Amino acid sequence: MSELAAPADLYRHSLRLLLDKNIAGWVGLWAEEGVMEFPFAPKGWPGRLEGKQAIAAYMRHYPDHIDLHDFPDLTIHQTTDPEKIVVEMRGVGRLVETGAPFDMTYIAVVTVQGGRITSYRDYWNPLAVLEPGTGFIESSR
Prior knowledge:
It is built from six helices and seven strands, in the order ααββααβββββαα.
């Protein structure tokens, strides 16, 4: 991916890396000082990760918990800021520990500067992970 990739192109590339379970490659798209935020994080989950190292540590075991198969319904909205996009999508797959289906709807606000992700606000539904019997809480923290 080019150092000066457009935010939408970089984001699409990041999704391909997640589907390939290439977490190191995904983290490599981040700026050193990048910030990842989860405004709706449930109690006991991180609400903010500061720096590439913190993001890498958080994502390191993601493929051990969620086996992603696709990101259908992807819509990327350009904003008046050429470095910022708003993304709507679903992530589908299965939970590794239980084999239960995984289907999460996301809205993300992503900022890319100099070809690297500098800010990612992930508005996912915490109620879905709090449902008893999903195994998500147990396998993801």
